[in-house]
Amino acid sequence: QVELVESGGGSVQAGGSLKLSCAATSYIYKWRCMAWFRQAPGKEREVVATILFTGDGHTYFADSVKDRFTLSRDHDKNTLYLQMNSLKPEDTGVYHCAADGRLWSGGRCDSRIQSFTYWGQGTQVTVSS
Question: What is the pLDDT of residues 46-84, one digit of tens each?
């Protein structure tokens, strides 16, 4: 049974940084795509970023986090990271890691929720103004 465990969330002031970790109980390199999603109170879950583990290693970031968030991975530790800088109050939410995502016909990660097989329980990020 594959498990994804997120950590690194917390409370920060606007402008601060956090680094989220997603540790998998399986070898992450066997998946085509992994991603981070977030869900704010009263809102639908939305994609934050995706990473392709094959080909050119393409990454995708939602417009709302582009140039502030970055992805990295450690295959030896089977861990995906999300570095979040210049945090804003609107970044507040529960951040979920997702794995084993499918590809679009163009060879990029399908960023829809239903694309991903495995999900973590999430880690809370709260950004105060």
Answer: 999 999 998 888 999 999 999 999 999 998 999 999 999
Strands, DSSP E only, in 1-129?
Answer: 4-7, 10-13, 18-24, 33-39, 46-52, 59-61, 69-74, 79-84, 93-99, 118-119, 123-128
Task: Tell me the three state secondary structure of residue 1.
Answer: coil
Q: How far is Cα 114 from Cα 17, in angstroms, rounded to an integer? A: 29
Residue 101 token pair: 């995502």
* Residue among 100, 105, 96 nearest 116 (CA): 100
Give the Å distances, CA to CA, from 75 to 22, 39, 71, 79, 110: 12, 27, 13, 6, 22
14 and 82 in contact (C-beta within 8 Å)?
Answer: no
Question: What's the distance, CA 72 to chain centroid?
Answer: 10
Flag whether pLDDT at 1 surpasses 90. Answer: no
Q: What value does the mean pLDDT take over residues 23-49?
A: 94
